[in-house]
Specification:
91 residues; two-stranded antiparallel ribbon; 2 helices; alpha+beta
């Protein structure tokens, strides 16, 4: 059995509001169109070639956004401490 990171629910260490950039993110991901769902493809199916994979990207961003009170957000993990200039910079 294969284990794919995109199917693991990784808890982010911090979340960033990407509401103003969600269209750019979606276009960037979809720029690799040969990697995603294509009903005419004869290639083997993978986790990212399913019909709902691109929808799941949007759903995840909306869900993380909901958790911090914005429309869309992106979660990140960190191996080191995350530093901020001052507390007023935090949401």
């Amino acid at each position: 059995m294969y284990h794919y990171i995109q199917w693991k629910n990784i808890e982010p260490d911090f979340v960033v509001d990407v509401s103003d950039f969600i269209d750019v993110k979606q276009k960037a991901v979809l720029a690799y169109s040969t990697q995603f769902y294509d009903p005419k493809s004869n290639e083997p199916e993978t986790p990212i070639t399913s019909k709902n994979f691109t929808e799941s990207i949007n759903y995840r961003a909306k869900d993380l956004g909901r958790l911090i009170g914005v429309e869309y957000a992106e979660g990140f993990t960190s191996e080191r401490y995350v530093a901020v200039e001052n507390l007023s910079k935090l949401i």
